[in-house]
Design a protein that fits this description.
about 0% helix, mainly beta, globular
C-alpha cells in the first residue's frame, strides 16, 4: 500500500489550527473529516499520509498546515483507493 493515493474518511474528526488567509498571526480551528493523500508509511499502529487535500465538516477544502500526518487506525473509518 506504500505509495498508493488514498482518500481517508475519519470516524473521529481531527481539530487543527490553520492560519487565516492574508493574516500571518490570525489562527482559527478547523475540524477535518476527509483527507486525500499518498501513503508514505504503513505499520501496525496506523498509516502516515503525505497530505494533498483536507476537507472540513462542510466539505470545504482546507489548506494543509502540515506536509504529512500520522493516523492511528482507530481514527480511520474508511480508507479508499483514490486512483
Amino acid at each position: 500500500m506504500k505509495g498508493k493515493k488514498v482518500r481517508v474518511q475519519l470516524n473521529t474528526p481531527i481539530d487543527i489550527e490553520v492560519s487565516e488567509e492574508g493574516a500571518k498571526e490570525k489562527i482559527r480551528l478547523e475540524t477535518i473529516f476527509k483527507i486525500y493523500g499518498t501513503i508514505t508509511e504503513f505499520g501496525n499502529a496506523g498509516v502516515e499520509i503525505e497530505i494533498s487535500d483536507l476537507f472540513n465538516e462542510k466539505n470545504l477544502k482546507i489548506l494543509p498546515p502540515y506536509r504529512s500526518l500520522f493516523l492511528p487506525y482507530h481514527k480511520i473509518d474508511y480508507l479508499f483507493s483514490a486512483t
